[in-house]
C-alpha cells in the first residue's frame, strides 16, 4: 500500500519528494520528470531541483528549486560546480525535510548520493552506461557507478537491458536494481497531437512522410537514417523525411543532406515544443539509434498512433516492440515484430556521402519502403501501437515510483 503521509510530533504531514535534473527542457529524462510530477498525487509535496533557468520548460506539477549553478566548459570549473551543487543540494534536503530524493542523469546522480542526509535515495540510469564513455572518462565513470551509485537505496534501471548492463559490466548486486519504465502522458499527447500544423509544414505532409525525433548526437545515429533514406527516395521520389531536434551534429547532417542531393526531401526543423502533432501526421516513425536506455520517444510515437521502425539497439526497442522475445536475440535482417519493425543495429562510425551503403542501412531502407507501400501492415501496427502504449500509462508507472 502506498503511504503518502507521515506522522511528525503528533501532526500528519505530506511526504516530501524531490526530483533532481539539470533543466526541465530538451530531452527524454526531463520530460519523464515533468510527467512524474503530474502523475503523482498532490497528496505528496513535489519539488523539482534544477541547476539553472531555461526557456520552454516542460509542463509540470512541482515546486521548482533553482540552484543557480550553471555549467562550465573546463575540467576545474566542472569539478568546482559539482562541489557547489553538493553543498547546495544538502542544504535544500535539510531545509525542506525531503523524505525521498530521485535523480536523473549522471551529474545529478552523483550529487544526489554525495549530498545524502536522512532521505531515501534513488538514482535513475537512463542509458547503457558501458557504451556512454571512452578512455579515462569511462574508467572514472565506472568507478562512480560502482562506488557512488551503489550507495543509493535503489538504482532504478529504465529497462531490462540497462539492468543487465549494470550487472554484467559494473557488477552491481541485482537486488539493488529496480526496473521502472518511463511513464507516458497518453491523455496529454492525445490532445496535443490534434493541433494544426503550420501551413509551411502541411506542404511536406502532402507526400509520404517519415519522421524521427531526438538530439542530433552520435548516439542517435541520424546520419545512417539519412543515408538509408536516399535509397527510399530512389523508389519513392516524393518521400519526405522530417528530423526534429538540435545538437552537435547539425552542421554535419546538413552537409550530408546536401551532398546526397536530398535538400528537397529532408527537413531539419529543430526543437519543437509540440513534437506530437508532427509525429501524428507522419506515415511512420523511425528510431535509428546506436544505443538507448529505453527509447521513450518510441512510446510517445505509439501514443500518436504512428507505426514504428527501430534499430534493435541495446536497449529498449526490443522490450517495447517485441516483449515476448529475449534480450539476447540478434538479427541481421529487418523483422516484423508484434508491435513494430526492428532492423539490425548499426556498428557505429559517422559515415559521409562518399561511403558505400552498409547492410544495416539497406535493411532500414527496405523497412521504410515496406511500410510506406503496405497500407494494411501500417494500419495493423498503428492499432497495435495504441494498445501497447497503455502498458506505460501514468497510473501503471507512477505507483511503482511511490512504492519504492
Automatic annotation (TrEMBL):
<feature type="domain" description="Glycosyltransferase subfamily 4-like N-terminal">
    <location>
        <begin position="27"/>
        <end position="188"/>
    </location>
</feature>
<keyword id="KW-0808">Transferase</keyword>
<dbReference type="InterPro" id="IPR001296">
    <property type="entry name" value="Glyco_trans_1"/>
</dbReference>
<dbReference type="Pfam" id="PF00534">
    <property type="entry name" value="Glycos_transf_1"/>
</dbReference>
<dbReference type="GO" id="GO:0016757">
    <property type="term" value="F:glycosyltransferase activity"/>
</dbReference>
<dbReference type="Pfam" id="PF13439">
    <property type="entry name" value="Glyco_transf_4"/>
</dbReference>
<protein>
    <submittedName>
        <fullName>Glycosyltransferase</fullName>
    </submittedName>
</protein>
<feature type="domain" description="Glycosyl transferase family 1">
    <location>
        <begin position="205"/>
        <end position="323"/>
    </location>
</feature>
<dbReference type="InterPro" id="IPR028098">
    <property type="entry name" value="Glyco_trans_4-like_N"/>
</dbReference>
Amino acid at each position: 500500500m502506498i503511504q503518502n503521509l507521515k506522522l511528525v510530533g503528533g501532526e500528519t504531514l505530506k511526504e516530501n519528494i524531490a526530483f533532481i535534473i539539470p533543466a526541465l527542457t530538451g530531452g527524454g529524462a526531463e520530460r519523464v520528470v515533468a510527467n512524474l510530477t503530474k502523475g503523482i498525487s498532490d497528496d505528496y509535496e513535489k519539488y523539482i531541483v534544477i541547476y539553472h533557468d531555461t526557456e520552454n520548460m516542460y509542463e509540470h506539477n512541482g515546486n521548482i528549486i533553482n540552484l543557480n549553478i550553471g555549467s562550465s566548459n573546463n575540467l576545474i570549473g566542472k569539478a568546482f560546480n559539482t562541489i557547489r551543487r553538493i553543498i547546495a543540494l544538502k542544504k535544500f534536503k535539510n531545509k525542506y525535510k525531503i523524505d525521498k530524493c530521485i535523480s536523473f542523469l549522471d551529474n545529478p546522480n552523483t550529487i544526489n548520493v554525495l549530498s545524502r542526509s536522512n532521505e531515501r535515495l534513488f538514482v535513475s540510469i537512463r542509458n547503457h552506461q558501458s557504451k556512454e564513455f571512452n578512455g579515462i572518462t569511462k574508467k572514472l565513470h565506472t568507478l562512480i557507478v560502482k562506488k557512488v551509485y551503489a550507495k543509493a537505496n535503489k538504482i532504478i534501471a529504465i529497462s531490462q537491458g540497462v539492468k543487465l548492463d549494470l550487472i554484467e559490466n559494473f557488477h552491481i548486486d541485482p537486488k539493488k536494481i529496480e526496473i521502472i519504465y518511463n511513464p507516458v502522458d497518453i491523455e496529454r499527447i492525445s490532445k496535443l497531437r490534434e493541433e494544426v500544423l503550420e501551413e509551411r509544414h502541411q506542404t511536406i505532409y502532402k507526400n509520404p512522410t517519415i519522421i524521427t525525433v531526438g538530439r542530433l548526437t552520435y548516439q542517435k545515429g541520424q546520419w545512417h537514417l539519412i543515408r538509408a533514406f536516399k535509397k527510399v527516395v530512389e523508389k519513392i521520389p516524393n518521400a519526405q523525411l522530417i528530423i526534429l531536434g538540435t545538437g552537435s551534429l547539425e552542421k554535419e547532417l546538413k552537409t550530408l543532406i546536401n551532398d546526397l542531393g536530398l535538400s528537397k526531401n529532408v527537413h531539419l526543423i529543430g526543437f519543437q515544443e509540440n513534437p506530437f502533432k508532427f509525429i501524428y501526421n507522419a506515415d511512420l516513425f523511425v528510431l535509428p539509434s546506436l544505443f538507448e536506455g529505453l527509447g521513450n520517444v518510441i512510446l510517445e510515437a505509439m501514443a500518436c498512433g504512428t507505426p514504428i521502425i527501430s534499430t534493435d539497439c541495446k536497449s529498449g526497442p526490443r522490450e517495447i516492440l517485441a516483449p515476448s522475445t529475449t534480450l539476447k536475440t540478434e538479427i541481421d535482417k529487418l523483422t516484423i515484430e508484434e508491435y513494430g519493425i526492428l532492423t539490425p543495429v548499426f556498428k557505429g562510425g559517422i559515415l559521409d556521402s562518399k561511403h558505400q551503403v552498409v547492410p544495416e542501412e539497406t535493411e532500414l531502407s527496405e523497412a521504410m519502403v515496406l511500410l510506406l507501400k503496405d497500407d494494411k501492415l501500417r494500419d495493423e501496427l498503428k492499432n497495435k501501437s495504441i494498445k501497447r502504449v497503455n502498458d506505460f500509462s501514468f497510473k501503471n508507472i507512477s505507483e511503482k515510483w511511490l512504492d519504492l
